[in-house]
Amino acid sequence: MTAIPEHAQHEAVLAGTVTAVPLGQRPPSGPIAILPHPADTAMWAVQAAGGVLGPLSDATRGLIWLSYGRADELRAALDDNPGIGWVQLPWAGVDAFSDLLAEQDRPGLLWTSAKGAYAQPVAEHAFTLTLALLRVLPKRARALSWSTLPEGRSLYGRHVVIIGAGGIALELIRLLEPFGTTVTVVRRSEQPVAGAARTVQTSALHEVLPDADVVVVAAALTKDTRHLIGAPELALMNRNANLVNVGRGPLIDTDALVAALAAGSIAGAALDVTEPEPLPDGHPLWTEPRCLITPHSADTPEMTAPLLAERIRLNVLAFLGDGRFVGVVDPQRGY
Fold it and tell me: What values do phi and psi take at 192, rounded to 5?
């Protein structure tokens, strides 16, 4: 079996929010099933924590779901095995399971995800895309001749607005610190975020956009955040501002973004996620010179496998006794 790297263990603890579930509210421990297809790292994680693996049956009490979709199959597994008290999902975002989460929201069933576990690689990617836009690399990469036009801006001292306050945002703030940036975080609650010069609620988004040099979208996708960045928000951004999305494609209104880039209303956009996804051949964003697209590759399987395994290990420990679950999902909020 594959051992979990030390850095992965460190990240899983720091980036994920630990929730201590009271003894009377913890799911009953018992055999754990891994579906649809068991992976070596997941099996290692369960066994390393002292868990007992078994096939899905009436005796199953924990379920580790390793598919990034197939919600109907997961629904059937839960309906057929009502004794399951804990489900671990593989993604940081759980929008693919939002309807199922709401349907299955009941006492005795606890959901956890990988939120926060992949913070380092995704924040690193967001940081990379930010530098690429400021240094006009989308244009440079497409160039066929030497340019004599001086273009490009430094990250030092810029105002960066980060939408979202999860593990990605926290890690990105750490990466930005040496550049002397001023960071504003936009989040659902008004609780201040460590390292940010300012924290505002989502209702104040329009107030902070005009002064942003870079806007990084790293929020969860819910019914309330769909098209959080649309035509009105893009119109508020200044012409030198850049937009980065490492959250979910539908957080940005694609048609509005296409129009804003074509009009030169913003300087550029870098997207690791799109709507639709995958972005079809021939879509205008592919040929937009101000746009850089990466194919949802901020966290590759090679990066995430050990991180998810460590998240599983910690949550199996919680399931078996200490109740300190990491990445607990609120089924009604959808994250």
Answer: -60, 145
Listed residue (1, 96, 4, 54) closest to 312, CA to CA: 4
d(CA 31, CA 77): 15
Q: Which residue, 183, 211, 214, is CA-closest to 197? A: 183
Residue ranges of the chain with per-residue pLDDT less than 50: 1-15
Structure tokens at 183: 């960071």
pTM for the whole thing?
A: 0.89
The whole-angstrom separation of Cα 253 and Cα 250 is 6
CB 223 within 8 A of CB 201: no
pLDDT tens-digit readout, 81-130: 999 999 999 999 999 999 999 999 999 999 999 999 999 999 999 999 99
**pLDDT tens-digit readout, 34-90:** 998 878 999 999 999 999 999 999 999 999 999 988 999 999 999 999 999 999 999
Burial of 195 (0-12, 13-18, 19+ CB in 10 A): middle
Kindly state the tokens that stand for 333. 């909020």
- Burial degree of 296 (CB within 10 A; 0-12, 13-18, 19+): middle
216, 229, 240: which is closest to 134 by C-alpha? 240
Q: How far apart are CA 228 and CA 245, in angstroms?
A: 12
Question: Rounded to whole angstroms, how far apart are CA atoms 93 and 102?
Answer: 15
**Active-site residue set:** 248, 277, 296
Which sign does the torsion angle of CA 268, 274, 279, 283 carry? negative
